[in-house]
């Protein structure tokens, strides 16, 4: 299992989700985006639909009809009705259900920095777990650890 920690600074969560989603879908995988904040999920959904005129990223909410067909599913919970192999925790809150996915992305900012640090320490590289840390440097995302 891979776990990527993404420290938000310049770009908001919805834009980072869209960037990651393009890569996940480009690799033929499905994605679950989790946030307890309904307004954040709404904003992420709008950003995904409007990423580029020719390359919108189709998505839907977990409670909607046809959720299992969505390539990107937006949900307040960690259940992937769409069979997603990747999950993004857009609200900065780690969930233990992350172990159900091949790859997890934890997006965090100033308000969730301490929780992200604690999570990093709790997830050591044992048992086949691979951790990575990314942050923005002059607008570009750089892998730091």
TrEMBL record:
Gene Ontology BP annotations: DNA replication
Source species, domain of life: Bacteria
Pfam families: DNA_pol3_chi
TM region positions: none
Molecular function GO terms recorded: DNA binding; DNA-directed DNA polymerase activity
Name of the protein this chain belongs to: DNA polymerase III subunit chi
Lineage summary: Bacteria, Pseudomonadati, Pseudomonadota, Alphaproteobacteria, Sphingomonadales
């Amino acid at each position: 299992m891979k776990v990527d920690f993404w420290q938000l600074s310049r770009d908001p969560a919805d834009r980072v989700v869209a960037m990651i989603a393009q890569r996940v879908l480009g690799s033929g995988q499905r994605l679950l985006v989790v946030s307890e904040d309904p307004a954040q999920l709404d904003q992420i959904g709008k950003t995904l639909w409007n990423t580029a005129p020719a390359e919108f990223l189709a998505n839907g909410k977990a409670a909607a009809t046809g959720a299992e067909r969505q390539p990107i599913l937006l949900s307040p919970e960690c259940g992937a009705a769409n069979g997603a192999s990747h999950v993004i925790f857009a609200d900065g809150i780690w969930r233990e259900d992350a172990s159900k996915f091949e790859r997890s992305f934890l997006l965090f900012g100033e308000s969730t920095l301490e929780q992200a640090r604690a999570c990093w320490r709790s997830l050591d590289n044992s048992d086949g777990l691979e951790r990575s840390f990314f942050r923005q440097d002059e607008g570009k995302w750089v892998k730091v650890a």
